[in-house]
Known about the structure:
Layout: H1 19-28, H2 31-34, H3 40-48, H4 65-85, E1 89-93, H5 99-108, E2 111-116, H6 119-134, H7 136-171, H8 177-182, H9 198-217, H10 220-234, H11 250-274, E3 279-283, H12 292-295, E4 302-310, H13 312-323, E5 327-335, H14 361-365, H15 372-378, H16 382-386, H17 393-410, H18 429-439, H19 449-460, H20 463-493, E6 498-505, E7 516-522
Amino acid sequence: DDDTFSNVFCENSEKLINAHLFALAAKYYSLSNLGVCTPLEDVLEALRGDNQGTAGIKTDEFMNTKKSHEVQVMSELVDNIANYCGIKQVIDIGSGKGYLSSFLSMQYNLKVYGIDSSNTNTNGAHERNRKLKKHWKAYQSRGRANLKSQRLERASDRPMEDEINCKEINERPLNNDSSLQSHDQVTIQALVPSCDFTEIATSETSKQSKVDLVARTQSDESKLSEEFLAILNVLPADAVEVSCSSQCNYGELCEEEKMQRKMASLKAKASESNESNMYFPLTSCITAETELGDIITDLEDCMMVGLHTCGDLAANTLRIFTAKPEIKAVCSVGCCYHLLSEQFENQQECPEEVWGFPMCQYLKDKGWCCGRNARMSACLALERVAVGQMLPTESLFYRAVLQVIVEEIYGVTKSDRHVGKTFSKSSSFIDYVRKALKKLELDDSKLPDSCIMDYYEKYKHRMNELEAFNMLKVVLAPCIEVLILLDRLCYLKEQDNIAWSGLVKLFDPVKSPRCYAVIALKKQSC
């Protein structure tokens, strides 16, 4: 009913008069309630078919809890999309220090190009790989133990599985050839009604059968050796330290030569499958007009990913995806909505400019604008507040009073400079104001301590008001986020070359508040 939430605001003054109804309305229009998201489990099931996921290294051994959760979940999804599309190359936009990129390469044997605008991040990615190599023996030992445990479990389960499979085959009608043929096909049609992926799926199934046949005939030792070769491919050449004793007796030397020859032979046999297992950190600023072929010389059929791509980078990732035929799929999780550029924010007509919002024609036609305050609110984390991780009220209060001082004492209403994390480095409100004024390049000598404290005392009693106001912003945050995300999804729905697109909740929002991914697959011919 359109009138359900009509009494949230006063009709004349437009002031909020019913906070409870306001909260209910915000919940009603959030992504979790609108029913527009596709469950992650459904996407994975459709992509995998009857294939099982790969068990591997736990990311929490070399990442913090938040990053580990994000990388573990997103890398599994990316691998399934890549397998479904039959591609081995991944381009990670805004890759930072390479957490996702390196794991995709190591765990899933994908050839990954991590592109970041910061050379510092690129160098950090190289350094991180170097450190990862130093501790890899421990990870490898644990992986070997896990592999052995999994084999034992499979061996114990196999008699029961064989009995069940045999029973299924005997009970299946012999004249139903079509159902037998389609039994192993990926059921993506439930998600992708407009496109036939049968040819791709059949081709990939055939390839996978060959790979599985080869894998079954290899010994455990060969598997471990190939895994080790894969790790060497991940790391920069200068990160691999080869050390051996300068004095070896004849027997030791022979064993070493045997091992070297064995490794060389394995590498030659595995070169086709392992040549894709590489990670290349690159530095480049990505825009909507970026030609990936100028950055990646061996660009081939690939997919684009982005884990918390900042501001306009998320929008530009989708634009590049739709424009480039080589890019078959995209999986993008955006963040930093406050840094989005808006076409209608300043009411300036720049038709040639590429904006972060809006993207879809529907909102463009309506001249829709959020504004910076709304976009700032979209960055807040309702789920974290709901479990007791409250907003930093005192620091927000300091910032609010500082703004009053700057406007009234210095006459400044806008500035390109930022206060940053001054609060955490300050011992008192006076100390905070003086440090902040220096950052804003304003002369604090004409402002005595007593004057600063007068402002503090004047507004101290209104701190509860500020907290209540910010809580209302937190409640509204999901509604603003849904507008930005649906704009991106609608943009993809407007494209003719997209087979399927959707919003998928990837992460636990308490661990990672920006938890929604925009995912799309192109039509087979595109």
